[in-house]
Structures are given as C-alpha cells and as structure tokens.
Amino acid sequence: MSLLTGHFAAHRIAWSRALIVLLLLLVLFTPPPKVDAGWAAELSEMLGFALLAAATLWRIWCHLFIAGTKDGELASSGPYSVARNPLYLGNLLGVMGFGFAVEQPLLALGLGFGFALVYPSVVAKEEGRLGQIFGDSYREYCARVPRWFPKWSLYREPATIAVSPRRMRGAILDAMWFLWAFALWEFIEELHSRKVLPTLF
Hints:
Blueprint: H1 3-10, H2 12-29, H3 39-67, H4 86-101, H5 105-134, H6 136-144, H7 165-175, H8 177-193
C-alpha cells in the first residue's frame, strides 16, 4: 500500500467530501464540456442511466442485508455471499454511470480509473480490521468468496431477515446520491445555457 493510497484509506470520507466540493465549484463556474450530438451521445446517456439505476438498486439491496444483521455479526448472505465488497462495486457502477449519463465518457473512465487506483487500499484496510474482529470465520469467508467479481453459484439468502427501518431509510437516501448528482449536473448545465451562472475559467 503506497503512502498516498494509505492516507486516502484512512481519511476517505474527508477526501471524498473535499473532492465533491471541488467538482461542484468547477461545474458551477466552468462551461460544460462540449458534447457531440448523435448516436454516440445517446448511447452514452442510455448506458449511464442503466448503470445509475443498477447502482442505486444494488446498493439498496446490499444495505438490506446489512440492516438485517445483528450487531457484531458478519454479513455473508445475499450480495455478500457472492462478493466481499458489493457496496463498493455499487459505487463503481454509480460513478461510471454518472459520467456516461452526462454524456462524458472520458469522465466516466477517469472516475473508474480513480476508483481502481485508490479503493483497493480502502478494502485492504477494512479487511484487516474485519480479520481482527471475526478471526478464522472471516478468513474462511475470504477464502470462499471473491473480493470484487460476484460468483453467483455461491448465492444464498435466509428465508427472512429483520430490518431496521431507520437504517434502511438512511441506506435509501445514501443510494440516491448518484441520481441526485446527475439531476444537479443537468440543472447547472441548464443555468449555464441560459447565462444565469457566470463563467470564471
């Protein structure tokens, strides 16, 4: 783990918020990138919408199984039975879906590259912590379930789960951020087109 990625792993929430603020300032005060109209733009937008919908539903599904586990219990059913980090996989779908939905394929690829660059260190840090908490049961889980790419033959789920409404409400709001980001981008783009927002750069 490099010094930079290790620092991000320890402070990812603060860095993510700072990055969001920086991107918001750039979007507010710079003209939107030019987009070539035509089938390529339409294809990018459709792909983006599909990825955004998949990311939102996937993250809600993942949270359903977290909200249905008891405190101190390892989540290992539902999406967690086929991949060890399904929430982060949902994040990847969401950030790339956002880039494609706003018809900026280079942004989508850049966000995907950034995710691939920094999040392995986040996962490594979390897996070390979970290994300390759950010991041999977690190491057996890691040996059986892949880290990233779902292995659907492993899928299993209980007949019922007890879910905390408060935790699920927060999970749904959390999962909606990708869609809200897209709506905000479109709103700001419209303000730029109407010359309501100044262009500073």
